[in-house]
Amino acid sequence: MVGVSEYLIEKIKQKAATRFELVDSPKENTLRISVALTNIETPNPILAVTSSLLPIGLGISTVAKVVTGEHTNVGSATIEMMISDANSGDPIVAVIDRRAGAKDLSTMVDSTDDARDAVDWWVERIGSTLRGELAN
C-alpha cells in the first residue's frame, strides 16, 4: 500500500511543520520520527456493500461491533512508531497501535479509506502529544 505510506509521511510533515523546523540532517535538539505501517487490511468491496446496505448484513455487523469492538468488512491498519533523539538515537517514545475502520460509504468507493482514516487519527494524536496536550 504505497499510497497510504506516502499519505502518512505527508500528513506527519504537514503536522510537524506547523510547530517545528523540518531538517534533512540532525542538528542540536532534533527529534527523529521513525514510522512503519503494517498489517494494512482492505475490506472485500462486495461484502462491505452487503454488510452496510442490506438489513441482515448491517445487523450482523452491528452485533460484531458490540461484541468485538469492530464492524465486519472494514479495513484496518497498524502503526509502529518511535520518536528518538536524532543525534544520540536514544528513544523517547515508542508506540504500536491498531485501528479498524468505521462503517461508512467512503470505504465502498476507496478500499484504503479506513487506513487513511487511521493515519489521520494517528497524526492528530502525534500532534497533540508533541504539544503536550495529552496526559499519559
How does this model look, in words?
The protein has 136 residues and is α+β, with helices and mostly antiparallel strands. It is 46% helix and 23% strand. It has helices at 2-17, 45-53, 55-68, 106-109, 113-131, and strands at 31-41, 76-85, 91-100. The chain has a three-stranded antiparallel beta sheet, covered by helices on one side. The radius of gyration is 18 Å and the shape is elongated.
What labels would you give this structure?
elongated; 3-stranded antiparallel sheet; 136 residues; single chain; alpha+beta
Brief overview, please?
By secondary structure, this protein is of the alpha+beta class.
Describe the SSE topology.
Layout: H1 2-17, E1 31-41, H2 45-53, H3 55-68, E2 76-85, E3 91-100, H4 106-109, H5 113-131
Antiparallel strand pairs: 1-2, 2-3
Helix pairs in contact: 1-5, 2-3
Residue runs with pLDDT of under 50 for 5 or more positions = none
Count of individual helical segments: 5
Q: Assign a percent range to the helix content.
A: 40-55%
The value of Rg in angstroms is 18 Å
Content-based structural category: alpha+beta
Number of strands: 3
Mean pLDDT: 78
The biggest sheet amounts to: 3 strands, antiparallel
Query: What coarse outline follows from CA principal-axis ratios?
Result: elongated
